[in-house]
Write a structure and sequence with these properties.
The chain folds into five domains: 199 residues, no CATH class; 181 residues, no CATH class; 48 residues; 221 residues, no CATH class; 163 residues, no CATH class. The protein starts with a helix and ends with a helix. The strands form four sheets. Strands 15, 16, 17, 18, 19, 20, 21, 22, 23 and 24 form a ten-stranded mixed sheet that branches. Strands 4, 5, 6, 7, 8, 9, 10 and 11 form an eight-stranded mixed sheet that branches. 56% of the residues lie in helices and 16% in strands. It is α+β, with helices and mostly antiparallel strands. It comes from Streptomyces finlayi. InterPro entries: ABC3_permease_C (IPR003838), MacB_PCD (IPR025857), Macrolide_Exporter_MacB (IPR050250). It is a multi-pass membrane protein.
C-alpha cells in the first residue's frame, strides 16, 4: 500500500511531465482500437447485407464464380428456366423464383456520366424479384413493367440527383439498354456503395444474358418449419443430385460472399494494425526517455527513500506502478479516441462513396480489452529499464546534486552489440542484392531490415556523438556561443539523444524506403514502356477487371487517322506440354499487329509466325521448365471451346515486366476453337496512328468513346503519368498512416526538451544571471531541438535508402531494373525535419524563457 501511495503521489506530482507520454499511448491505442472497430463495423455491414439478400436456398450453375468475379465473355453463367419448375416441385419449397444478376455492366445517365461507384464497389444489373424485398423496398414509383423502364437504388439516385422519369443507359456486352426510371428502391440494410438497377425479367434475360428463358440463379423460399439444410437436400434430390449445380443455404451463400470480401478486409485490417505497431514502437522511445529523465531528476528523492529503508525492489516497483497508471490512463483515453477515429473513417469512406452507417457500429468486448492490455504492457515494458536503474540508486546519491554517473562499461558493451547487429544487417542487405531468386532474397531483405533497425537503435548513443558533432559544424557553429551551448546540451546525454532521434528515425526510414521503391518502379516501368511499346495509344477500362464491350470496340475501329487497331483477349485454357504436364494458363489471342505494338524479344523462332494458322508462342521460362523447342506441338483445351493442337512457332524472352510469360496466338485461331458466345471480350486494345496524324487520331479515339465513360484512351505520356499517379496515391496513403508514428516521434522531442528544461532549471537560472538573454535561451533550446531532429532524419533517411536500394535489387529479378533515388523527396523530408525540430521546441523554449532567475537558481533540480 505504501508503494501504491508513493507511486500515486509521484504520478500526480509529475502529471504535466507524463502528459505527452500519455498522448503517445493514447494515439497508438486509438489506432489499434479504431482499426478493429472500423473493420468489425465493415464486417457487420456486409454480414447483414449478405444475410438479408440471400434466399433460404440459392441454386446457381456449377461453374459460376464468386459474387465479384466478372465472366470473360461479359455474360454470367446461366441455367435454363426449366430448372425453376424442377426446384418448385421439391418438398418444402414455398416458392422458387428465377433471378438475373450481372456485374459486367456500366450505367450512365443522359450526359454519359458514370453512375457507378468510384471506390471499387460493383455496379449490378438484374431483374426485380420478390427475393429483393428481403433487403429493399420500393420508396417511390413502381417496379419496371417493360423494356423501357428501369428501377434504381435510392443511394445512387441521391448521389447523382436522379429522379423518376430520368433516362439511364445500361451498357452490357449484348448491347445498350435505354430506359426511363420508373421507381426508386431503398435498401432496408446498409448498402456499402454498390449501384443497382433493375429491369423486368424478360428484358434482363435478353439484354444481360443474351437469351430468353435463362437465369443466373434461382432463389428458393422454404415453407414454414422447413430448415434451410433440409430444403437444400430436398432441392438437390429434385435436381437429381448437386453435380451440375451449386446449391447453397442462406448461411453458405452469405459466407461465400463474405469470403470474396475477406481478403480485401484482411489486407486493410492488418496493414492498419502494422502502422499502429510502428506507432507503438516509436512510443516506446518516448516512454523510456520520460521515465529515464524522471528517475534522473528524482535521484536525491530515491536516495533518501533507500536511506530510510526502502529496498531496491520497492523502488523498482514504485516506478513500474507509475507506468501502469500511465498505461491505464492513456489506454482508456485511447479506446474512446479509437471509437471516434472509427466513426471518422466511416464518414471519410462515405464521402468517397462507400457508405457505412453508424447504426452498424460494432464494438466487440475484445477491442477495449486489447487496447488496454497493449497500452499497459507496452508502457510497463518501456519503463522496465528506467525502473531497474532507479532500483540501483544508492543511499549515498541523496548527498549528491547530480545523478549517478553513467556505466562506461555497459556503454561500450552496448556499442559493441550495436555494431555487430548493424554489421550483420548490412551483410543480409548485401546478400539480398546478390540473390538469384526473389523468395530467397526476400528472406535476406526482411532479416536485414530488422537487424539494421535494431542495430541503429542500440548504437544510437555512439552515432549521436559522431553525427551531432558533424551536424553542429554545419548548422550550429554559425550561431556562435548559443550554438555551441546547444551542441553541448545535445551531446550531454548521448543515450537520451539517441533514443529521441531513433523515434523519428523509424518513420522516416520507412518513408525513404518506400520512396525509393516507388520511384524505381515508375522509372523501371517507363523505361520498359519506351523500349517495348510501339503502339501510339492504349485503351482500357478505368475499372480493374472490366473488359471492353463489343460496341465500344467497334466505335474505336471507325475513328479516322488510325493505321491499325489491335485486339487483345485472354482466353483461359488447359495446356498440355510435350512432356505430358498440364497447367491452367491464359493464352493471349491478339491480332498480328500486336507484334508491332509490343516489341517482344524472342529466344528462338519469329513472333510473326506465332500468328500463323494453328500456331502459338510460349515464354522461355515455361519452355525451359518443360523442355519445349520451336516446332513442338502443344495441346490447348480452350475453356468453353474445343481442344486444339498448336505448333510452337516462337519462344519469347521473359526478361521483361510487360507481358512477362505471355503466350500468344492469332485471334482467328482462338475464334476457330471457341464459340462466339464464349469468346472473351478485349481486355485491352492498342492503336497506331497514321504518319503525321497522332493528334488527330488521339482526339478521334477519345471522341469515339464519349458514350462509354469507363474506358480511357491514353497515349504513352498519359499511360506513364497514370502509372506514376497510381503509385503516388498508394504512397500518399502509406505516408498518411506513417504520419501517426512521426507525430508520436515529435511528441518525443517535445517531451525530451520539456523534461530537459526542468532538469537544467538551476543551470538555466545561472546562465540567465551571467547575462544570457531570454531570446538567446530560447534560440539555444530551438537549436538543440533542430539538431536532434536532423540527427534522427539523417539516420532514418540513410537507413531507408539502404533498405530501398536492396529492395529494388530484389525487384530487378522481376524485371524492374532501374534504381532511382527520389532526391527531391529525400531533401524535402530532411529540410522539413528541421522545421519539425523548431515546432517541437516552441513550448519548451517558451517555458524556459519565462523562468524566474532567482527561483531557478534556488531550485534543487
Amino acid at each position: 500500500m505504501t508503494v501504491l501511495k508513493t507511486s500515486m503521489r509521484n504520478f500526480l506530482a509529475h502529471k504535466g511531465r507524463m502528459a505527452l507520454s500519455a498522448v503517445a499511448v493514447l494515439l497508438s491505442v486509438a489506432f489499434v482500437c479504431g482499426t478493429l472497430v472500423f473493420t468489425d463495423t465493415m464486417n457487420t455491414t456486409f454480414d447483414k447485407l449478405f444475410a438479408a439478400s440471400s434466399a433460404d436456398v440459392t441454386v446457381s450453375p456449377k461453374k459460376a464464380g464468386e459474387a465479384d468475379e466478372m465472366p470473360e465473355n461479359g455474360k454470367p453463367d446461366s441455367l435454363p428456366a426449366s430448372v425453376v419448375d424442377r426446384v418448385q416441385k421439391a418438398d418444402g419449397v414455398e416458392q422458387a423464383e428465377g433471378g438475373v444478376s450481372s456485374l459486367s455492366v456500366t450505367v450512365v445517365d443522359g450526359d454519359n456520366k458514370n453512375m457507378g461507384s468510384e471506390t471499387g464497389a460493383p455496379t449490378i444489373a438484374g431483374n426485380w424479384t420478390r427475393n429483393d424485398l428481403r433487403s429493399m423496398e420500393i420508396a417511390s414509383g413502381h417496379a419496371p413493367r417493360g423494356p423501357t423502364e428501369v428501377m434504381v437504388d435510392a443511394d445512387t439516385a441521391d448521389k447523382h440527383g436522379l429522379k423518376i422519369g430520368d433516362e439511364l443507359r445500361t451498357i452490357a456486352v449484348t448491347g445498350d439498354i435505354k430506359a426511363k426510371i420508373s421507381g426508386i428502391a431503398a435498401f432496408t440494410v446498409t448498402n456499402p456503395g454498390a449501384a443497382v438497377v433493375f429491369y423486368d425479367t424478360a428484358t434482363a434475360q435478353q439484354k444481360l444474358l443474351g437469351a430468353p428463358d435463362v437465369f443466373t440463379h434461382i432463389s428458393v423460399a422454404a415453407e414454414t418449419g422447413v430448415a434451410d439444410t433440409q430444403l437444400k437436400k430436398n432441392v438437390a434430390a429434385a435436381l437429381g443430385g448437386a453435380e451440375a449445380f451449386k446449391i447453397q443455404t442462406q448461411d453458405e451463400a452469405a459466407a461465400a460472399n463474405k469470403d470474396s470480401m475477406g481478403s480485401f478486409l484482411d489486407v486493410m485490417k492488418y496493414a492498419m494494425l502494422g502502422f499502429a505497431g510502428i506507432a507503438f514502437l516509436v512510443g516506446i522511445f518516448l516512454i523510456v526517455n520520460t521515465f529515464s529523465m524522471l528517475v534522473a531528476q528524482r535521484t536525491r528523492e530515491i536516495g533518501l527513500m533507500r536511506a530510510i529503508g526502502s529496498s531496491r525492489k520497492q523502488v523498482n516497483r514504485s516506478v513500474l506502478v507509475e507506468a501502469v497508471l500511465l498505461g491505464i490512463v492513456g489506454s482508456l483515453l485511447g479506446v474512446g479516441a479509437g471509437i471516434g477515429l472509427a466513426i471518422g473513417l466511416m464518414k471519410l469512406m462515405g464521402a468517397m462513396g462507400m457508405e457505412l452507417s453508424t447504426k452498424d457500429l460494432t464494438i466487440a468486448w475484445t477491442t477495449p480489452a486489447i487496447g488496454l492490455v497493449l497500452g499497459v504492457v507496452v508502457t510497463v515494458l518501456a519503463a522496465y529499464v528506467p525502473a531497474r536503474r532507479a532500483g540501483k540508486v544508492s543511499p549515498m546519491a541523496a548527498l549528491r546534486d547530480a545523478g549517478t554517473p553513467a556505466d562506461a562499461k555497459s556503454s561500450w558493451i552496448r556499442a559493441g552489440i550495436g555494431l555487430v547487429l548493424t554489421g550483420s544487417g548490412a551483410a543480409a542487405l548485401w546478400a539480398t542484392t546478390q540473390a538469384d531468386k526473389a523468395t530467397e532474397g526476400s528472406l535476406f531483405l526482411g532479416l536485414g531490415v530488422v537487424l539494421t533497425l535494431i542495430g541503429f537503435i542500440v548504437i544510437g548513443p555512439l552515432l549521436a556523438g559522431i553525427v551531432v558533432r558533424a551536424l553542429s559544424v554545419v548548422v550550429l557553429r554559425m550561431f556562435g556561443p548559443v550554438g555551441r551551448l546547444a551542441e553541448r546540451n545535445a551531446l550531454r546525454n548521448p543515450r537520451r539523444t539517441g533514443a529521441t532521434g531513433a523515434a523519428l528515425m523509424i518513420g522516416l526510414a520507412l518513408v525513404a524506403c518506400l520512396s525509393v521503391v516507388g520511384s524505381s518502379m515508375v522509372a523501371s516501368a517507363t523505361t520498359e514502356l519506351d523500349k517495348s511499346v510501339g503502339a501510339d495509344f492504349i485503351v482500357q477500362s478505368s475499372n480493374p477487371g472490366q473488359l471492353i464491350v463489343p460496341q465500344a470496340a467497334k466505335a474505336l475501329e471507325t475513328a479516322p487517322g488510325i493505321e491499325h487497331i489491335t485486339n487483345y483477349k485472354v482466353v483461359s485454357a488447359t495446356l498440355t506440354a510435350p512432356d505430358g504436364s498440364k497447367e491452367d494458363e491464359g493464352v493471349v489471342a491478339a491480332d498480328p499487329t500486336y507484334k508491332d505494338d509490343l516489341r517482344r524479344e524472342t529466344v528462338s523462332g519469329d513472333l510473326a509466325d506465332a500468328y500463323g494458322e494453328d500456331a502459338m508462342s510460349v515464354g522461355d521460362d515455361y519452355a525451359t521448365r518443360h523442355k519445349i523447342k520451336v516446332g513442338d506441338e502443344m495441346t490447348v483445351a480452350f475453356k468453353g471451346g474445343e481442344t486444339a493442337k498448336l505448333k510452337v512457332a516462337a519462344i519469347t524472352s521473359d526478361e521483361t515486366n510487360v507481358d512477362k510469360g505471355a503466350m500468344y496466338t492469332h485471334t482467328r485461331t482462338a475464334e476457330k476453337y471457341v464459340p462466339a458466345d464464349k469468346m472473351p471480350q478485349n481486355m485491352i486494345m492498342f492503336a497506331k496512328a497514321e504518319d503525321g496524324k497522332a493528334d488527330e487520331a488521339y482526339a478521334a479515339l477519345k471522341s469515339s468513346l464519349a458514350e462509354y465513360p469507363t474506358y480511357k484512351v491514353q497515349n504513352q505520356a498519359d499511360f506513364k503519368q497514370d502509372l506514376k499517379d497510381q503509385i503516388g496515391q498508394l504512397l500518399n496513403i502509406v505516408y498518411g498512416l506513417l504520419a501517426l508514428a512521426i507525430i508520436v516521434a515529435v511528441l518525443g522531442v517535445v517531451n525530451t526538451l520539456a523534461l530537459s528544461v526542468v532538469e537544467r532549471t538551476r543551470e538555466i537560472g545561472l546562465m540567465r544571471a551571467i547575462g544570457l538573454s531570454r531570446r538567446q535561451l530560447r534560440r539555444m533550446i530551438r537549436l538543440e531541438s533542430v539538431v536532434i531532429a536532423l540527427f534522427g532524419a539523417l539516420l532514418g533517411l540513410g537507413l531507408g535508402m539502404g533498405w530501398g536500394t536492396s529492395a529494388q535489387k530484389l525487384l530487378a529479378l522481376e524485371g524492374l531494373n532501374v534504381l532511382e533515388i527520389p532526391w527531391p523527396t529525400i531533401l524535402t523530408v530532411f529540410v522539413a525535419s528541421a522545421f519539425v525540430g523548431l515546432f517541437a521546441a516552441l513550448v519548451p523554449a517558451f517555458r524556459a524563457g519565462r523562468m524566474n532567475v532567482l527561483n531557478a537558481i534556488a531550485t534543487d533540480g
